[in-house]
C-alpha cells in the first residue's frame, strides 16, 4: 500500500498467470522495472486443505517482495482459511473475479463472482477480519457499466484495499479491445488505488491507458510473457533478459514444459517458422540449453560470473 502512496509514476504490475507467474519469472520481471508481481491463481480450498498443494503452488523468498497472492474461492471461509496460512509471506491477498473458464463458473469462482457481489463482499469482510494484510479484487467489467459501479461500491463498503480492472466483460475474448471507459469509471468511483489490465504490450500502451483513465498503474499478462522487459522500455525481449530467465529457471529448478513455454513466448517473434518447428521438438531442459548454446550464443557460465561480480560490487 505504501508503494501506491509514494509513487511518482504509474506502477508497473505483472499479472497473475496460471503456470507462468511463478517465483523465477517474478524475480525476472522485477529486474526489468516491475513494481508488483502476482502469483498464479491458486484454489483457496485446496491450498488450505493440502500441504502438498501449498508446497507445489506457492514458494517465495526475501527477494519476492512485493508479491500479491491470488486466490480463487467461492466463499469467505475458504478464502480466509487460505489467507491466514499465507499472510506472513505476502504483501496482499487478491480475489480472482475474472476467470472466464467454464469449469470455474461451474465451481462458482472466477468471473461467476461478477454476478454475485454479496459473496465477494463477504469474502473481503471475512478475510480482513482474520488477517492484517491488504485484500484486493481483480474484476472484469459488466456489459452494463452501472452494474460494475454497484459491484465496486459494495467492495469499497467493506474496505477492499485496491482494485484491478480488466477492461473486458466475461464473455469478451482477448482479441477484442479493452474498454477504457469501463476502466476510467472504476477509477472515478473508487476511493482506493486502481490498476488497469488489458492490452499492455509497451510503455506507449501504459501511457495511453493512464492518460485516458487516470489509474494508478497498469498490469500486463500476454505482453510481459512475450517481453518480460517491457516495463523497462524495451519493445522486444533483449537477449540479456532471456539469459537471465534461463539462469533463474535453472537456479530455482523448473519443469521442461514451463521452461519451453516461457522461452517460446520470448523468442517467438524472432524465430522463423522452421526455427519454431525445431524448437518445438525439444522436450527436455538439457536439449533446450544445448540448442540455445548452439544457435543463440547462450553462455550460462558467463552469465553466472557476471552476476557474481555484480553481487561482489553490491557487497563492497
Ligand atoms: C497464460 C495466462 C494465464 C492467466 N492466468 C490468470 C490467473 O491465474 N488469474 C487471473 O486473474 N488472470 C489470469 N489470466 C488473465 C490475465 O491476468 C489478464 O487479465 C488477461 O490476460 C488480460 O491482460 P493482457 O491483455 O495483458 O493479456 C491469465 C492470462 C494468461 C495469458
Automatic annotation (TrEMBL):
> Which of this chain's residues are annotated to bind FMN?
16-18, 70, 138, 166, 221-222
User: Which interval of the chain is the signal sequence?
Assistant: none
Q: Which residue ranges does the record assign to the DUS-like FMN-binding domain?
A: 14-271
Q: Which GO terms describe its biological process?
A: mRNA processing
Q: Which reactions appear under catalytic activity for this entry?
A: 5,6-dihydrouridine(20a) in tRNA + NAD(+) = uridine(20a) in tRNA + NADH + H(+); a 5,6-dihydrouridine in mRNA + NADP(+) = a uridine in mRNA + NADPH + H(+); 5,6-dihydrouridine(20a) in tRNA + NADP(+) = uridine(20a) in tRNA + NADPH + H(+); 5,6-dihydrouridine(20b) in tRNA + NAD(+) = uridine(20b) in tRNA + NADH + H(+)
List cofactor names only. FMN
**What GO molecular function annotation could you give as one example from this UniProt entry?**
flavin adenine dinucleotide binding
Which residues of this protein are catalytic? 99 (proton donor)
What would be one Pfam family of this protein?
Dus
Matching SUPFAM superfamilies? FMN-linked oxidoreductases
Query: What are the record keywords, sorted?
Result: Flavoprotein, FMN, mRNA processing, NAD, NADP, Nucleotide-binding, Oxidoreductase, tRNA processing
**EC numbers on record:** 1.3.1.-
Family the entry assigns: Belongs to the dus family. Belongs to the Dus family. Dus4 subfamily.
Q: What the protein does?
A: Catalyzes the synthesis of dihydrouridine, a modified base found in the D-loop of most tRNAs.
Q: What name goes with this protein?
A: tRNA-dihydrouridine synthase
This protein's species is: Mortierella polycephala
Instruction: List the lineage, top down.
Output: Eukaryota, Fungi, Fungi incertae sedis, Mucoromycota, Mortierellomycotina
